[in-house]
Each structure stands twice: as C-alpha cells, then as structure tokens.
Design a protein that fits this description.
alpha+beta, elongated, disordered C terminus
Length: about 180
C-alpha cells in the first residue's frame, strides 16, 4: 500500500476517503436548497463508481464523564447537579442507543488485463488522485470536509472494523434463520 492506495490481488486499486459531514438539520431553508443543488452536481460530476461506507459505533462516554467528575472535585457546589447529569446522559445513551458515525467513500480503478495493470500503475494512481480531488471539490461545496486516508494503520483499522461488523451482522442473520 502506497499513499493510501490499496492494491488487490484481483488487479484493482482502492482508495478510501473520509467525509466529515455537516449537520443538515441545522441549516436554513436557503442553505438546504444550496446544499442539495451542490450535491446534485456532485452526483452528476462523479461519472465513476463509488461506494459509500457508514460505520456506526456505540458512543463511549467514559472521557466525558471523567471530565465532569474532575470539575466536581474542584467545585463541590456542582456535585449534586453533575451526578444527576451523569445519570441522565448514561440513561440517554442506553435508551436512545446513541452512536457515533464515520462516513467514507471508496473509489477504485480496475484493469482486466494483468499486463496492462502493471504497465499503467502510475496512470491508475493518477486517475484515483483525480477522482479524489473531484470528490473533495464537490463535497466541499456542500459544506463537508473531506480527508484522504493515506496512513496504512488507519486504512487497516477502517477495513478491520468494516469486515468485523459485516461478519457479526452475517452471524446475527444466520442465527435468525
């Protein structure tokens, strides 16, 4: 893997892009209209295959609760209020099943001919880079931030979480049958 590009045995290059979305619900009607128009441009501009990956994970409130407890030590007047607040957020987390979400776009480039694949490796890499910049430009117009995943550990972590989640979902589905 070089610069976040994954080479597969089936002669495919894959690139993972992380998207940090805006909170659409907090926008005015005019802003929402503008965002939707920009998103339409994104869909029309990206005349290549993309996959959208959304990873949900249970929200971990441990650090947040620790910070609250540290502040209480400094101010005893807040002790009762903070206990109630901690109880409230724990309850909310359990009942609403709150989670954090990570959004990714996966792009690829595939060559059927093995010889062509190795001769044009640089061309394929440039093509994926061009696709990345096209996605970044279009989604930035919608107000989203886009980041190229280029660290090997980060790519492996994303794939590990994705495949473990799919494996667990398949196991759950099999249990239902």
């Amino acid at each position: 893997m070089d610069n976040g590009l994954i080479k597969t045995k089936s002669h495919k290059y894959i690139k993972i892009i992380q998207v940090y979305p805006i909170n659409y619900n907090l926008k005015s009607d005019l802003e929402k209209s503008s965002i939707l128009n920009s998103y339409k441009v994104f869909l029309k501009t990206c005349n290549f295959d993309i996959q959208i990956l959304i990873q949900s994970s249970k929200e971990d409130l441990t650090n947040h609760i620790k910070k609250i407890q540290e502040n209480v030590r400094e101010n005893k007047y807040l002790e009762e209020i903070s206990k109630e607040y901690i109880s409230y957020i724990k309850h909310l987390n359990l009942t609403k099943k709150s989670s954090s979400k990570n959004f990714y776009i996966i792009i690829s480039n595939e060559k059927k001919d093995k010889k062509e694949f190795f001769e044009n490796e640089e061309i394929i890499q440039n093509d994926l880079k061009e696709k990345y910049f096209k996605i970044k430009d279009c989604l930035s117009r919608c107000g989203n931030s886009v980041k190229e995943i280029s660290d090997k550990k980060e790519v492996l972590e994303i794939l590990k979480i994705f495949f473990n989640t799919r494996k667990n979902n398949i196991m759950v589905e099999e249990e239902k049958i």
